[in-house]
Amino acid sequence: MTLTAFPYRVPNDTTVTPLDWNILIDDTPLYLGDHIPDWDYNTDLILTRIITIDTDQLCSDTGLPPGTNFAVSIVWSASGSNQRGQGFRKVFSQNGIQNIEARLLLEGAYLGGTLSLETMLTLADDLVDAPPFAAHKGGSLLWSDSVSIRLQGDAPQFPIAILDFTATSFPAEAAWYLQIGTNLHAATMGSLLLCVNEGNKAASAAFKNAARPAQVDLAIISSTYTDVARTLIEYALTNAEFDDETDFPEDSLGAMLQALIQTRFPDTPLPDLRQHRDNSPALFSSIIQASARIFEEIE
Questions:
Q1: What pairs with residue 60 in β-bridges?
Q2: Distance between CA atoms of 31 and 141, rounded to whole angstroms?
Q3: What is the pTM of this model?
Q4: Residues near 270 by Cβ (< 8 Å), separated by ≥ 6?
Protein backbone atom coordinates (compact mmCIF):
# COMPACT_ATOMS: atom_id res chain seq x y z
CA MET A 1 0.00 0.00 0.00
CA THR A 2 1.35 3.45 -0.92
CA LEU A 3 0.96 6.24 1.63
CA THR A 4 1.17 9.88 0.60
CA ALA A 5 2.81 12.31 3.01
CA PHE A 6 1.37 15.79 2.56
CA PRO A 7 3.42 18.87 3.51
CA TYR A 8 0.32 20.29 5.22
CA ARG A 9 -2.49 19.06 7.47
CA VAL A 10 -5.31 17.03 5.92
CA PRO A 11 -8.73 15.95 7.25
CA ASN A 12 -9.31 12.86 9.39
CA ASP A 13 -11.00 9.85 7.81
CA THR A 14 -14.40 10.67 9.32
CA THR A 15 -14.55 14.32 8.21
CA VAL A 16 -15.48 13.58 4.58
CA THR A 17 -18.07 10.88 3.89
CA PRO A 18 -18.76 9.97 0.24
CA LEU A 19 -21.87 7.95 -0.56
CA ASP A 20 -21.99 5.38 -3.36
CA TRP A 21 -22.26 6.47 -6.98
CA ASN A 22 -25.70 6.16 -8.60
CA ILE A 23 -26.75 6.10 -12.23
CA LEU A 24 -29.97 7.84 -13.25
CA ILE A 25 -32.30 5.66 -15.33
CA ASP A 26 -35.53 7.48 -16.25
CA ASP A 27 -34.80 9.93 -13.38
CA THR A 28 -34.55 7.03 -10.91
CA PRO A 29 -31.19 6.69 -9.09
CA LEU A 30 -29.82 3.15 -9.13
CA TYR A 31 -26.65 1.80 -7.54
CA LEU A 32 -23.87 2.09 -10.11
CA GLY A 33 -21.65 -0.85 -9.10
CA ASP A 34 -18.39 -1.71 -10.85
CA HIS A 35 -19.69 -2.31 -14.38
CA ILE A 36 -22.50 -1.27 -16.69
CA PRO A 37 -23.80 -4.17 -18.81
CA ASP A 38 -25.38 -3.46 -22.21
CA TRP A 39 -23.60 -0.12 -22.48
CA ASP A 40 -22.57 1.16 -25.92
CA TYR A 41 -21.27 4.41 -27.36
CA ASN A 42 -24.77 5.66 -28.06
CA THR A 43 -25.52 5.61 -24.33
CA ASP A 44 -24.89 8.79 -22.35
CA LEU A 45 -24.47 8.43 -18.61
CA ILE A 46 -25.97 10.58 -15.87
CA LEU A 47 -24.17 9.83 -12.61
CA THR A 48 -24.81 11.26 -9.15
CA ARG A 49 -23.18 11.12 -5.77
CA ILE A 50 -23.52 12.89 -2.42
CA ILE A 51 -20.41 13.86 -0.47
CA THR A 52 -21.03 14.86 3.15
CA ILE A 53 -18.45 17.17 4.72
CA ASP A 54 -18.26 18.34 8.32
CA THR A 55 -16.88 21.79 7.53
CA ASP A 56 -16.21 22.75 11.15
CA GLN A 57 -14.22 19.56 11.64
CA LEU A 58 -12.52 20.11 8.28
CA CYS A 59 -11.22 23.50 9.39
CA SER A 60 -10.14 22.05 12.74
CA ASP A 61 -8.33 19.12 11.09
CA THR A 62 -6.54 21.23 8.48
CA GLY A 63 -5.84 24.28 10.62
CA LEU A 64 -7.62 26.50 8.12
CA PRO A 65 -9.80 29.40 9.37
CA PRO A 66 -13.61 29.28 9.24
CA GLY A 67 -14.93 30.76 6.02
CA THR A 68 -12.14 29.24 3.90
CA ASN A 69 -13.23 28.45 0.34
CA PHE A 70 -13.06 24.72 -0.39
CA ALA A 71 -13.93 22.95 -3.64
CA VAL A 72 -15.29 19.52 -4.46
CA SER A 73 -14.29 18.44 -7.97
CA ILE A 74 -14.83 15.27 -9.94
CA VAL A 75 -12.57 14.29 -12.82
CA TRP A 76 -13.47 11.46 -15.17
CA SER A 77 -11.29 9.50 -17.57
CA ALA A 78 -11.99 6.65 -19.98
CA SER A 79 -9.31 4.13 -20.93
CA GLY A 80 -11.00 3.22 -24.21
CA SER A 81 -10.94 6.76 -25.55
CA ASN A 82 -8.00 8.21 -23.60
CA GLN A 83 -10.34 11.11 -22.87
CA ARG A 84 -10.35 12.99 -19.56
CA GLY A 85 -12.28 15.94 -18.22
CA GLN A 86 -13.73 17.72 -15.22
CA GLY A 87 -17.36 16.71 -14.79
CA PHE A 88 -18.26 18.68 -11.67
CA ARG A 89 -16.95 21.43 -9.40
CA LYS A 90 -18.55 23.26 -6.49
CA VAL A 91 -16.97 25.83 -4.21
CA PHE A 92 -18.32 26.21 -0.68
CA SER A 93 -17.34 28.00 2.51
CA GLN A 94 -20.32 27.59 4.83
CA ASN A 95 -19.92 26.19 8.33
CA GLY A 96 -21.61 23.04 9.59
CA ILE A 97 -22.50 19.87 7.70
CA GLN A 98 -22.46 20.26 3.90
CA ASN A 99 -24.14 17.71 1.64
CA ILE A 100 -22.62 18.26 -1.80
CA GLU A 101 -24.69 16.59 -4.53
CA ALA A 102 -22.55 15.95 -7.60
CA ARG A 103 -24.18 15.28 -10.96
CA LEU A 104 -22.29 14.38 -14.13
CA LEU A 105 -23.54 14.04 -17.69
CA LEU A 106 -21.02 12.02 -19.68
CA GLU A 107 -21.48 11.63 -23.43
CA GLY A 108 -21.15 8.03 -24.55
CA ALA A 109 -19.14 9.04 -27.63
CA TYR A 110 -16.26 10.07 -25.33
CA LEU A 111 -16.26 6.95 -23.15
CA GLY A 112 -15.31 3.27 -23.52
CA GLY A 113 -13.18 0.71 -21.70
CA THR A 114 -12.85 1.49 -18.01
CA LEU A 115 -14.41 4.69 -16.69
CA SER A 116 -12.55 6.19 -13.70
CA LEU A 117 -14.15 8.78 -11.43
CA GLU A 118 -11.92 10.69 -9.03
CA THR A 119 -13.57 12.83 -6.36
CA MET A 120 -11.33 15.50 -4.84
CA LEU A 121 -11.61 18.03 -2.02
CA THR A 122 -9.21 20.92 -2.51
CA LEU A 123 -8.45 24.40 -1.27
CA ALA A 124 -10.37 26.57 -3.74
CA ASP A 125 -8.18 29.70 -3.71
CA ASP A 126 -4.72 30.82 -2.64
CA LEU A 127 -4.64 31.74 1.05
CA VAL A 128 -2.13 34.49 1.77
CA ASP A 129 -2.28 34.38 5.58
CA ALA A 130 -2.58 30.62 6.08
CA PRO A 131 -1.43 29.27 9.46
CA PRO A 132 1.77 27.22 9.65
CA PHE A 133 1.48 23.66 8.32
CA ALA A 134 -1.83 24.48 6.61
CA ALA A 135 -2.45 24.28 2.85
CA HIS A 136 -2.18 27.72 1.26
CA LYS A 137 -2.14 27.24 -2.53
CA GLY A 138 -5.38 27.02 -4.46
CA GLY A 139 -5.87 23.48 -5.73
CA SER A 140 -4.00 21.85 -2.82
CA LEU A 141 -5.44 18.36 -2.47
CA LEU A 142 -6.96 17.67 0.94
CA TRP A 143 -8.85 14.42 0.29
CA SER A 144 -9.73 12.19 -2.65
CA ASP A 145 -11.14 8.84 -3.62
CA SER A 146 -11.40 6.99 -6.92
CA VAL A 147 -13.71 4.35 -8.37
CA SER A 148 -13.53 2.41 -11.64
CA ILE A 149 -16.48 1.20 -13.70
CA ARG A 150 -16.11 -1.26 -16.54
CA LEU A 151 -18.23 -0.28 -19.52
CA GLN A 152 -19.25 -3.36 -21.40
CA GLY A 153 -21.99 -4.75 -23.55
CA ASP A 154 -22.73 -6.85 -26.58
CA ALA A 155 -22.64 -3.90 -28.95
CA PRO A 156 -19.37 -2.90 -30.61
CA GLN A 157 -17.16 -0.92 -28.21
CA PHE A 158 -16.37 1.94 -30.55
CA PRO A 159 -18.13 5.02 -31.91
CA ILE A 160 -20.83 5.07 -34.53
CA ALA A 161 -21.39 8.07 -36.82
CA ILE A 162 -24.27 8.62 -39.20
CA LEU A 163 -22.91 10.38 -42.30
CA ASP A 164 -24.03 11.42 -45.76
CA PHE A 165 -21.93 9.09 -47.93
CA THR A 166 -22.35 11.38 -50.96
CA ALA A 167 -20.06 13.82 -49.15
CA THR A 168 -17.42 11.14 -48.58
CA SER A 169 -15.32 8.76 -50.66
CA PHE A 170 -17.53 5.83 -49.61
CA PRO A 171 -19.97 4.27 -52.11
CA ALA A 172 -23.13 6.41 -52.07
CA GLU A 173 -25.44 3.39 -52.06
CA ALA A 174 -23.62 1.48 -49.29
CA ALA A 175 -25.28 1.04 -45.90
CA TRP A 176 -22.21 1.21 -43.67
CA TYR A 177 -18.43 1.34 -43.67
CA LEU A 178 -16.01 0.40 -40.91
CA GLN A 179 -12.93 2.59 -40.59
CA ILE A 180 -10.00 0.71 -38.98
CA GLY A 181 -6.73 2.28 -37.87
CA THR A 182 -3.37 0.71 -38.64
CA ASN A 183 -1.71 0.94 -35.19
CA LEU A 184 -2.54 -2.19 -33.20
CA HIS A 185 -1.19 -0.55 -30.02
CA ALA A 186 -3.49 2.49 -30.28
CA ALA A 187 -6.71 2.85 -28.28
CA THR A 188 -9.70 1.06 -29.82
CA MET A 189 -11.84 4.16 -29.34
CA GLY A 190 -9.62 6.21 -31.61
CA SER A 191 -8.96 3.41 -34.10
CA LEU A 192 -12.46 2.37 -35.14
CA LEU A 193 -15.45 4.24 -36.45
CA LEU A 194 -18.58 2.60 -37.81
CA CYS A 195 -19.97 4.98 -40.45
CA VAL A 196 -23.66 4.53 -41.25
CA ASN A 197 -24.96 6.06 -44.48
CA GLU A 198 -27.60 8.67 -43.73
CA GLY A 199 -28.77 8.33 -47.33
CA ASN A 200 -29.61 4.69 -46.74
CA LYS A 201 -32.91 5.26 -44.97
CA ALA A 202 -33.32 1.72 -43.63
CA ALA A 203 -29.82 1.55 -42.15
CA SER A 204 -29.79 5.06 -40.67
CA ALA A 205 -33.29 4.59 -39.21
CA ALA A 206 -32.24 1.31 -37.58
CA PHE A 207 -29.39 2.95 -35.67
CA LYS A 208 -31.42 6.05 -34.82
CA ASN A 209 -34.07 3.70 -33.37
CA ALA A 210 -31.49 1.54 -31.54
CA ALA A 211 -32.91 2.43 -28.11
CA ARG A 212 -36.37 1.13 -29.09
CA PRO A 213 -35.87 -0.85 -32.28
CA ALA A 214 -38.60 -2.41 -34.41
CA GLN A 215 -38.09 -5.92 -35.78
CA VAL A 216 -36.68 -4.59 -39.05
CA ASP A 217 -34.25 -2.39 -37.11
CA LEU A 218 -33.07 -5.39 -35.07
CA ALA A 219 -32.45 -7.33 -38.29
CA ILE A 220 -30.39 -4.53 -39.80
CA ILE A 221 -28.39 -3.94 -36.61
CA SER A 222 -27.76 -7.68 -36.22
CA SER A 223 -26.50 -8.04 -39.79
CA THR A 224 -24.35 -4.91 -39.39
CA TYR A 225 -22.70 -6.12 -36.18
CA THR A 226 -22.09 -9.52 -37.76
CA ASP A 227 -20.47 -7.87 -40.76
CA VAL A 228 -18.40 -5.68 -38.42
CA ALA A 229 -17.19 -8.82 -36.61
CA ARG A 230 -16.32 -10.47 -39.93
CA THR A 231 -14.45 -7.36 -41.10
CA LEU A 232 -12.45 -7.12 -37.86
CA ILE A 233 -11.57 -10.83 -37.79
CA GLU A 234 -10.46 -10.79 -41.42
CA TYR A 235 -8.48 -7.61 -40.76
CA ALA A 236 -6.65 -9.38 -37.94
CA LEU A 237 -6.02 -12.59 -39.89
CA THR A 238 -4.64 -10.73 -42.90
CA ASN A 239 -2.46 -8.39 -40.80
CA ALA A 240 1.10 -9.72 -40.62
CA GLU A 241 1.74 -7.70 -37.44
CA PHE A 242 -1.11 -9.36 -35.54
CA ASP A 243 -0.64 -12.44 -33.38
CA ASP A 244 -2.11 -13.85 -30.19
CA GLU A 245 1.10 -13.65 -28.13
CA THR A 246 1.89 -9.92 -28.19
CA ASP A 247 1.01 -8.13 -24.94
CA PHE A 248 -1.00 -5.26 -26.41
CA PRO A 249 -2.04 -2.41 -24.07
CA GLU A 250 -5.42 -2.70 -22.36
CA ASP A 251 -8.27 -1.42 -24.57
CA SER A 252 -5.97 -1.17 -27.58
CA LEU A 253 -6.99 -2.25 -31.07
CA GLY A 254 -4.69 -5.28 -30.88
CA ALA A 255 -6.08 -6.37 -27.48
CA MET A 256 -9.65 -5.96 -28.74
CA LEU A 257 -8.91 -8.12 -31.80
CA GLN A 258 -7.28 -10.79 -29.61
CA ALA A 259 -10.34 -10.83 -27.34
CA LEU A 260 -12.73 -10.95 -30.30
CA ILE A 261 -10.99 -13.93 -31.89
CA GLN A 262 -10.61 -15.72 -28.55
CA THR A 263 -14.34 -15.27 -27.91
CA ARG A 264 -15.41 -16.48 -31.36
CA PHE A 265 -12.86 -19.26 -31.75
CA PRO A 266 -11.65 -20.30 -28.26
CA ASP A 267 -10.37 -23.71 -29.37
CA THR A 268 -8.78 -22.87 -32.72
CA PRO A 269 -5.11 -21.81 -33.00
CA LEU A 270 -4.51 -18.62 -34.96
CA PRO A 271 -2.50 -20.33 -37.77
CA ASP A 272 -5.38 -22.77 -38.32
CA LEU A 273 -7.85 -19.88 -38.53
CA ARG A 274 -5.69 -18.13 -41.14
CA GLN A 275 -5.45 -21.31 -43.18
CA HIS A 276 -9.19 -21.94 -42.92
CA ARG A 277 -9.97 -18.40 -44.01
CA ASP A 278 -7.59 -18.66 -47.00
CA ASN A 279 -8.84 -22.09 -48.13
CA SER A 280 -12.60 -21.59 -47.67
CA PRO A 281 -13.43 -17.88 -47.35
CA ALA A 282 -17.17 -18.37 -48.02
CA LEU A 283 -17.51 -21.09 -45.38
CA PHE A 284 -15.39 -19.07 -42.96
CA SER A 285 -17.78 -16.12 -43.39
CA SER A 286 -20.73 -18.39 -42.53
CA ILE A 287 -18.89 -19.68 -39.45
CA ILE A 288 -18.53 -16.07 -38.26
CA GLN A 289 -22.26 -15.56 -38.81
CA ALA A 290 -22.93 -18.58 -36.62
CA SER A 291 -20.53 -17.43 -33.89
CA ALA A 292 -22.18 -13.98 -33.90
CA ARG A 293 -25.63 -15.63 -33.64
CA ILE A 294 -26.97 -13.45 -36.40
CA PHE A 295 -30.70 -12.60 -36.14
CA GLU A 296 -30.92 -14.36 -32.77
CA GLU A 297 -32.90 -11.45 -31.30
CA ILE A 298 -35.49 -11.50 -34.10
CA GLU A 299 -38.77 -13.02 -32.96
A1: none
A2: 27
A3: 0.61
A4: 237, 243, 244, 261
* pLDDT averaged over every residue in the chain: 88
3-state secondary structure of 263: helix
Instruction: Please write the tens of the pLDDT for every residue from 138-156.
Output: 999 999 999 998 876 545 5
State residue 155 phi and psi, 5-degree precision: -75, 160
CA angle 286, 287, 289 (to 5 degrees): 60
Strand blocks (E) in 124-262: 141-151, 160-163, 176-180, 192-197
- With a CB cutoff of 8 Å and minimum separation 6, the contacts of 81 are 110, 111, 112, 113, 187, 189, 190
Position 3 scores a pLDDT of 61
What's the CA dihedral at 254, 260, 265, 266 to 10 degrees?
80
The Cα 120–Cα 143 span in angstroms is 6
User: How many CB atoms sit inside 10 A of residue 86's CB?
Assistant: 11
CA distance 44 to 87: 13
Rg of the chain over all Cα atoms, to the nearest angstrom = 25
Q: Is the pLDDT of residue 263 over 50?
A: yes
Amino acid at the residue 144: S
- What length is written for the chain? 299
Burial class (CB in 10 A: 0-12, 13-18, 19+), 212: exposed
β-pairing, 45-54 vs 97-106, is antiparallel
* Three-class SS state of 63: coil
